[in-house]
Amino acid sequence: MRLWNLRGDVSGEVSRKKLITSAMERRVLLDSVADQSGDVDDEGDDYETAISATGYGFFHYWLVFIGGFANASDAIEILCVSILLPAAQCDLNMTSTDKGWLSSMVFFGMMVGGYIWGCLGDIYGRRKVLMVSLVVNGLAGIISSLVQTFPAFLCFRFISGLGVGGSIPLVWAYISEFQPADRRGGALCIIASFWMVGNVLVAVFALAIIPFDIGFVTPSFSYNSWRIFLTLCALPSLMLY
């Protein structure tokens, strides 16, 4: 029995030495190839090879559509405020300065949100953080349609901008990671074209809702046509989530 164990130990030791030797030889081979090609990022090459080897199918097309829809929802959320300004001016007692602040507030939110959500996406995963940013965008948009004072409206438009600032960079980074190199440029161009789809949709929503006397108004609460329009503009982000 001891002789059998000794043989097993010797055999195991030989196997381990072979594995170590094989790993060292592979490392030397990879280093030599990297030195010749000038590219030391062999892991990046392996990833691109794996992405290309998986082929291209329904998943990739669906992912591009989802990314484009997210881009369109961001366009809707950004442009809706400039469209509703004439209708909301009297309800919120806005001056010219107030309207300027309101138009720029979403961009302030995007500036801050892009940095915050981008860092969180690298740490916790882009898909999870993208979903959170979409919820922040959608909920803030809906709440902003319900508030009755200009300061509160301005605050929630800033929060909505935070959500938009997260979804824009995360969508581009997340979608591009799943695209093989020969199709990545075309996929991102399609996503970019959805921005125009959002422009058309927000104009259609405005024409179909704002000019009409719908909703209700009480002495203490107002939910009229431009507020309904604002609620509708926030729904695509929640639908995407």
Q: Outline of this structure?
A:
The protein has 241 residues and is mostly helical.
Describe this structure in words.
The chain is an all-alpha fold and 241 residues long. The chain has two domains: 2-40; 58-240, Up-down Bundle (Growth Hormone, Chain: A), CATH 1.20.1250. The chain is built from eight helices and two strands; from the N terminus they run αααααααββα. The protein has helices at residues 2-37, 42-53, 58-91, 96-124, 126-146, 150-177, 181-209, 225-240, and strands spanning 216-217, 222-223. The chain has a two-stranded antiparallel sheet. A hairpin with a 4-residue loop joins strand 1 (216-217) and strand 2. Helix 3 runs parallel beside helix 7 (181-209) and helix 5 (126-146) packs antiparallel against helix 8 (225-240). The longest helix has 36 residues, at 2-37. It is elongated and about 65 Å long. The protein starts with a helix and ends with a helix. Residues 60-241 form the Major facilitator superfamily (MFS) profile domain. One of its GO terms (cellular component) is membrane.
